[in-house]
Amino acid sequence: MALIQLQEMPIHCSELYEQLKEKQYGGIVTFVGTIREWTGDTQTKQICYSAYEEMALKEMHALAAKIEAHGAKVIIVHRLGLLELTDEAVFIGVASPHRSEAFRWCQFLIDELKKTVPIWKKEINTHTVNWGGHRT
Which of 33, 34, 106, 120 has the highest CB neighbour number within 10 Å of its CB? Predict the structure, then answer.
């Protein structure tokens, strides 16, 4: 069963990685998204994440179920609230019998999470505030 969480507390990546290790899995792939300072010419100071939590968790579970139906294990943890530069915003981990599947499914999960899960980011930059890449 997948571990799916939305949380305001810091993400402990090493602990999550350890939960992916099991004797039937030969490949573990993780993705950790952090808060970066520069996006092109825009300097970010902080990012604030919010979500429609009930729907976000439902969608995250549905994404994980697609992968786990193939015999893999999935962990998805996303932060909410105000994050500082270098903070971990998201952890995605996939353990599977073979590495190629783990890579493919990890990529699928982060791409689909960004497209379909109702989590929004408010980027607080040096001169503007952006919602999901749009200046306000």
Answer: 106
CA distance 97 to 87: 31
Mean pLDDT, the chain, rounded, equals 95
- Give the pLDDT band (50/70/90) at residue 136: very low
Dihedral sign (CA 32, 115, 8, 77): negative
Q: How confident is the model at residue 20 (pLDDT cuts 50, 70, 90)?
A: very high
User: Which DSSP string do the residues of 71-94 spell out, in sequence order?
Assistant: T-EEEEEEE-EEEETT-EEEEEEE
pLDDT at 81: 98
Q: What is the pLDDT of residue 127?
A: 87
Fill in the amino acid letter for 25.
Y
Query: Given this structure, which CATH class describes domain 3-130?
Result: alpha beta
Alpha helices in the chain (DSSP H): 13-20, 53-68, 99-116
Domain regions of the chain by residue span: 3-130
